[in-house]
Amino acid sequence: MRDPAVMSGTDFHRLELAGRESLRPAPMSVSEAVAGIVARKATVRQERLSGIHNPWGQAIGFTDAWVFLGLCESQGVVDAARDILGPDIILWDSELFTEMRSYTEFLREGREGRYWPVRPLAGAVVLLPVGQADPQPMAIGLNEIGQNVLEMLDPSAPIYVIRLIPGTSHFDRDPQHPAHRLCMEEQVLINYASRPLWLLSGVDRAKNDLVTGFAAAVPTWASGALPTQRGGEI
Q: Less Cβ crowding at N or C end of the chain, within 10 Å?
């Protein structure tokens, strides 16, 4: 068995389901997963769509996170990111925006990069217009991304944002890191300090913690109903 520190999400999926595949529902397609979330977008807080690729995160309550993890690990995404980051690539976050105009506003406010607890600060954002039949990944360096990159896309369509860092950068898990503290103030439902990291390509050259976060979440039936706000919003 491979070392858990270097196992991919797909490896964990296979391990988790070994001998009991029949107990798991058929996996969703990307279009089904996105359509299901878009249909209930008025009741889902944006913060809940952060880390949607994490099978041990909060997304398990309303979608199949493995579908989004598969997108993050796809060869097209890795190849696009490699042109910017080089051979060593680490996935640390992804987020679905049900309307592209929401991400445009996020960029307009200068928030992309604001919550990245990374030193040296470097990375790439891969954009996937998942509302299209055959979405093609577009990678942009963190320092180059701006709202103009979305000008040719439908502002009402969903977009999937994948956040990657090079293997030469260190992801700081100290909750006192300025990026973590700012995130806790402005995005209170998000805790990046405990998020799992995936080594998508190459080598981790910055001695990152690639183990934290790979633990099963408490089932929703055991933890009670999800907190609600504003008429059922989660």
A: N
Say what the pLDDT of residue 185 is: 92
User: Checking DSSP bridges between strand 170-171 and strand 118-119, what pairing results, if any?
Assistant: antiparallel
C-alpha distances (whole Å) from 201 to each of 56, 87, 169 are 21, 6, 14
For the chain, which residues make up each domain, given as ranges? 4-216
Please provide the size of the chain in residues. Answer: 234
Give the per-residue pLDDT at 25.
57
Q: Which residues of the chain have pLDDT under 50?
A: 1-5, 7, 12-23, 219-229
State the DSSP string of 147-169: GGGGTTS-TTS-EEEEEEEETTS
Q: Identify the sign of the CA torsion 10, 188, 45, 138.
A: negative
pTM of model > 0.70? yes
- What's the rounded Cα separation, in Å, for the pair 159 and 162? 10
| Integer CA distances (angstroms), 20 to 2, 91, 150, in order | 20, 28, 43
123: left (phi over 0), alpha (psi -120 to 50) or beta: left
| 231, two tokens | 């008429």
Q: 204 vs 27, 165, 166, 189, 198, CA distance in Å?
A: 30, 10, 8, 28, 10
The token pair at 100 is 């592209």
User: E strands along 20-101, which residues?
Assistant: 89-97
